[in-house]
Amino acid sequence: MSVPLARRNVFFQKGKLILSVLSIGASLAMILLLMGFREGLYSALTAYVDNLDVDLIATQSGNEGVVSANSVLPGRIHNDLEELADAREAGHIAVAGVIFTVDEDKSPIVLVGYEPDSGLGDPWNLGDGRYLEQDDEILLDTWLAQRSGVAIGDTVELLSREFNVVGLTKGTASWMAPYAFVTLPAAQEALGLVDSVSYHLLRLNNRANLDTAKDAIETRFPNVRAIEPDQIADTDRRAIAAVMDRPINVLLFVAVIIGVAVMALTSYTSIMDRLREYGLLKAVGAKPLRLNVVVIQESLLNSSLGLITGVALAYSSAALIMAQWPQFNVTILPDSVWKIAVLRLIMTLLAAILPIRRLDRINVLDVFKA
Amino acid sequence: MLKLAWRNLTNEPTRMAISVTGIALALVLILVIAGIFAGSEEFAVAYIKNEPAPIWLMQSGVANMHMSSSYIAPELIIEAEQIKGIKDITGVLYTGGNLESGEDSILGYIIGVNPQAEIGGPWKLVEGRQNPQRGEIVIDAELAKRLGVELGDEVNLFNTAHKIIGLSRGNFGIGSSLAFINKQALSEWMAVPPDASSFALVRPDVAIDADALAARMQSELPDLNVMQQAEFAASDIDLIRQMGVDIIRAMNLIAYIVGLLVIGLTIYTATLERSREYGMLKALGANNSRLAVVVLSQALISAALGILFGAGLAYGVAALITRISPDMLILIDPEYVLNQIPILTLVTGIAALLPASRIANLDPMIAFKA
Question: Is residue A295 assigned to a domain?
């Protein structure tokens, strides 16, 4: 029966084991958090479109995003669109990026103007307060309000107009641009949109065909594109990813290198601690391959424990980060965990190179030195 | 004691190298994140800083260009032109848009400039001409490379092919790429009157004091916000800093934890390895505090080398990334590097606690065991 050498080595020193596992875990958690941050950023920015609950969005051709584009369409085509699409409900919204300022505190926000009567395009999760009734009212994201020190009942200024805060929304925070909602006429006036809107929203009758509705709209109005919300969200994601992926990938790359260094350090120090014992094994006939297998097994065991710790650390850190900084939506997908598990295997093998090379250089005679 | 600490560390150079690399990479992560934000500030205000306009006009309630919207009605520009002491006012339109070529798409800001205007367009042209007519565009030379296009080629913007008539320099940054097209064409796209503007650039007459003129303009134009160039640029920098501050804090915290664990792991294993020697010193009369100084010295030496290596590496990484991807300008402020030293020293002190407590509990008799 073979001796489980790798397992014994790993569990021999409890203090070192804890430090090693925590170090590897922290490195893997850092990678997972960065991936979660990236995913969360994109999902937070497309949260509005994801929750619109409409069948089609009519947008200016060439401006097929909501966050990443500035569509302008005439408001007067509203009835035609409704008829062409055989829609049971239609609404329109104005959307623009503006800066919300309270004292010295500045936040870029996505301002949405919707029609309270239709309810189409309204916030999907009202935390506190009530929905809009008047043109001088505003709904703010909960985190934005907290950060700016604003509460329900306060008056805020936006684009030189005063608005009463009547409600606070949830699920609308993002460090890039949280959402705020006003009535469509208020948004049109503030943004200088004369008889124009950004998007027309359409809920079709059950019997209506989506493709037929799209064709009818685009044939009648060549400057208009009728798109499903998923496609708009996808366009926004791709547009934001084209901007944000590069810097995040640089950070991910550095984080992966840190992870490899930490694993290598763990594995290397473990080998160095037992250099005499490895030499003894070599002296009694253990083949280099056998020793290499022990090193890899040990590294794998350490990194497996590190992976479990890392995933737990990542999920708990994500929860802590979102509690402390609600503008960060850290979404750790199961898919990311799988990717990290595979990445960890590659990192482990890379990290084992140095200790294996060190083992190859052991002089068996050193074992018998005093 | 310092000599002993140094010997302990350098006795195993590979372990020391891995450990120093781990600490250095944690610092690289901290510096690169802050550097990305600092670099993006530069690009975000490049247009404001480089246009020769000491005074800027915008919609009342607007004080930023980045991630913002502004609308100035034509009559307000006419009103502004009546004020004495103004050489000229150049209105520009400003909106977001996706520049596309094949499968590549880059989200950027589109500036509509009047072909006859002396200012408002690209400030550094490297090839071709500026002042775009309808269907023409000026883009940054690096952006052209990214899109795989050259002077005379076409890019798609708002579903319309635009011929590249000029290549500029200095306006392709993360989240703040600029492209210049014909103002009238953009006004049609934005559904605003051709004489409307988003922002207006004001040049005072010679011998007119810009400060006094700006103050006079603000009092005579209550429907507009009048800002001086430096104030306007500072407002955008302030916005980006406020956006970045929390994300930098969150990422730094993670990097500090990783650094802490790497230092802790290194010093702990080095201490374990030398348990006999420490026991010997204890048996010879060295007290716990002297030995703790050795441990702390090892930690501080590792951290100091890690910081030195990390700072150098961060500058190297920043230069390399900016060379490979010029839109990702990473600016590392030497003061920010120095600011990390006290924090990392504290982290190092904490990391030395575990090995120091191990030594405190060490039995001097260990030195005499077989």
Answer: yes
Angle subtended at Cα B152 by Cα B149 and Cα B153, rounded to the nearest 5 degrees: 40
Chain A residues closer than 8 Å to B354 by CB: 15, 19
Chain B nearest-CA distance from A1, in A, is 30
Question: Which chain B residues in 340-369 lie under 8 Å from chain A, judged by CB atoms?
Answer: 354, 358
Given A167, A199, A227, the domain boundary residue is A227
Q: Measured between alpha carbons, how far is B215 from A353 in angstroms, rounded to an integer?
A: 68
Q: Is A213 contained in some domain?
A: yes
A-B CB pairs within 8 A amount to 201
Range of the domain at A356: 5-45+240-368
What's the domain count of chain A? Answer: 2
Chain B residues touching A321 at Cβ < 8 A: 250
Q: What is the pTM of this model?
A: 0.81
Judged by a CB distance cut-off of 8 A, whether residue A162 touches chain B is no
Q: Are both A336 and A264 inside the same structural domain?
A: yes
Higher pLDDT, B248 or B288: B288
Residue A119 falls inside a structural domain: yes
pLDDT band at A202 (very low <50, low <70, confident <90, very high): very high
B7-25 burial by CB neighbour count: b if 16+ within 10 A, else e?
ebbeebebbbbbbbbbbbb
- Chain A residue at shortest CA distance from B239: A106
Q: Does A234 map to a domain?
A: no
Domain coordinates in residue numbering, chain B: 2-44+238-368, 61-222
